[in-house]
Design brief:
Shape: globular
Mean pLDDT: 81
Radius of gyration: 24 Å
Strand order of the largest sheet: 1-2
Oligomer: single chain
Number of strands: 2
Amino acid sequence: MANKAHSSVQAPGGRVIVLFLLFLLAFYQFYAFGFPAFAFICILPVIALTVILSFNNRMFLFWILFAINYLISMKDWPVKGIPTSLPNEMLELVLIAMAVILVEQFPFKRVGNLMFFTLAVWCGFCTLEILNDTCGLGINMGAWYQGARMMAFQLMYCFLVYTLYITTPNILLKYLYVWGGFALFAVFWVWKQKNIGFTFNENNWIQGAGRSTHIIQGGTLTRYFSIYSDAANYGIGIASTAVAFIVFAITSKIKKMRIFFLIVGIACVWGMFPSGTRTGIVCLGAGLGFFIFLSKSIKIIVPFSIFFALSIFLLVFTNVGNSNSEIRRMRSAFDKNDASAGARSMNQETMRKYMKEAPWGIGLGMFGEQIPANNKYNRMATIPADSEYVFIWLRTGQIGITTFLILTAIMLAGACWIVFFKIKSPSLRGIGAGMCCAFVSQQLGGYGNMVLMQFPNCLVFYGGLTIVYILPHIEQEWVALENKMLEKEAEKKRLKKEKKLAARV
């Protein structure tokens, strides 16, 4: 039956039907966002060409998704007027549809894991939120759909795409290199912003909408945001990336990979400081601290613990580096009397008074424009959430945030269990540990800032946790590939040594 379906799709008529269905799906997405029909018609040829190319090389579309996910938040992104999430969501849906239609046998065993079931429960909960009428305004399908897409459905799309497309060790290695390449580009761009200057669009944004949060301390400190939406999103995202690549570097057996991962890790640590995001330093420390727990190696635990303790001591109990405004900004993360932290606490205290009567939250997608000014919960729709967890709490209530935290803990625990007990290869275990540590780092960032569901963090770090669940399925192939690479490395070393000895003679 699968072969028959596969053959029918390969036929010209089958391709036309599939393309037609995908166009209908794309059209619905544009319609849901209220995108102008004329603009949609104008880009139809581009969509058609992309999908046709993707049928010949399915990974082509995956790499486009990853690139757009990283670059779409740039202030100089050339396509204006399209909602940021739309290209990502369309590409994810097309990738999933292509995998379901074109693969001869759908990998139910690989897809049906603990992470899938936890995400399914969360998507189910957010679907039930459509019945939430706490604000007394009736059911708002449009607002609910926008909220559910952002908060739940995109997580499931991400999981399915990574599970269906990262299927071999070669693809995994290419993914790590591509991720590292984009991370280095983000660090380069922040260096460019700091030393050369902003582009026209970046300068317009930071002098306008971003001025109050990005030019601080009386104008003496500028917070740089690179290719991300804002400095907090960048600082925490790049700190979590640093955690992953430092762990990859420590555990990799291949020299050239180890060098590349280390360069990316160190560059990302440096790149974190110009963001002026104080939570970033905490996320970096927490991620690396979590690696101590996952490493299962005394050789790693002892030096890491010493380095970690020394770094915290220098930041908290000394004034080392205080001449640098960025280091002073990071050090303030440990100041209990910080004014910014106090303002957040006051906001959250106000929220608690309202949320006592809204155990299911005010509803998904309910923002200021959705709730009339005379409505009791208008204040909750307009008050700055400052944190992804607080944002989820406001929209889904105590029941929702509790469910989200429990499900997140379960999927993380499942990934850690895989790293601890299911993976035998030390280097592959290192990749799994790096992904888990980066996920922990990012979740901690979500406690302090609105970063979990932002670009590119959501796809990168939820996708990274998905990879951990994939690793046991490719371990045997990974070991074979690694051994082959080690043999080539040893052969190169031998030839180099022989050449050196011959030169002496």
